[in-house]
């Protein structure tokens, strides 16, 4: 099979640490062959003119539920592929499909459908493992998770689920629940990222959780404890633990709604771009506009209202997932949080790739990595997307 070779010129190449003005990038056979600050002679390559735009790694989204009118909990290959295609339009080239709290049968079905969809996903954002969010979460921090499915970690159940396949790469749970620490250790033993989510833990519990495998914080500030009082004494919560445990990684829904500018700035200031990933946490209404929608599967999901740039429960008591796309996350960090473009892009590319364990292939424009490349302008409007060196969709 012929290995196509492309030479991208007249673009500003974004690396994790700098911008190479008017650089040259060569790809061949779906991989990056060279990145240079000067012209590279490559007479057999097809020239692609970036037109003075930024040339960036494709975005890596660690936490996505849906988009384009589809949700991963719909349980069909068609839904998986449609979500991947929709997010590709906005520059996402690697995506981690995410479930909601559900019964065991639904979790097993999600794994089965992921495996089938993965084989057919030749056009959309590539799947980078399956993320199970719940059902082992704290009831009073459930947010939009359906309470009828919430339960404590069950060793027989999670061992059966994980024995069925190796596609699960991340599982989010509340580490203070009975059985959660052995669960964290089990995930770690399997090379699966254990993340603290929908949790009421205090700092001391989080410290123990970190020692038992929970090294990541799911959607920082959303559905988690901060400083609380118990019998008049103050206790630090998950938020403070995330800041105090230096090696703990975090993710934030940087849609400009879930977290206001001061909190975006605080996370950036304390955790920095190397420990902070930008996520959409997008549900099916992402890229669809305001109106009524459903969070979760079409058969058993819960109604939500999309307004003010976010999905809400019908009584408007809680957010119910975002409708963001990855380009919006970077735009928000630059415009609202006043973060330098290079570091905002790093938080949407190299950092999440490292957290997901795919940094060997994804997340940076470096020789030898996959040619997942996007072009965007000063407003972070994406105009071209290459996945593994190809632009077709």
Automatic annotation (TrEMBL):
GO terms for biological process: N-acetylglucosamine catabolic process. It comes from the Bacteria. Residues 54-390 form the Amidohydrolase-related domain. The active site is at 281 (proton donor/acceptor). The keyword Nucleotide-binding does not apply. Its EC number is 3.5.1.25. Its cofactor is a divalent metal cation. SUPFAM superfamilies: Composite domain of metallo-dependent hydrolases, Metallo-dependent hydrolases. Zn(2+) binds at residues 133, 198, 219. It holds the Pfam family Amidohydro_1. Binds 1 divalent metal cation per subunit. The keyword Protein transport does not apply. Belongs to the metallo-dependent hydrolases superfamily. NagA family. This is N-acetylglucosamine-6-phosphate deacetylase. It comes from Chitinophaga fulva. The gene is nagA.
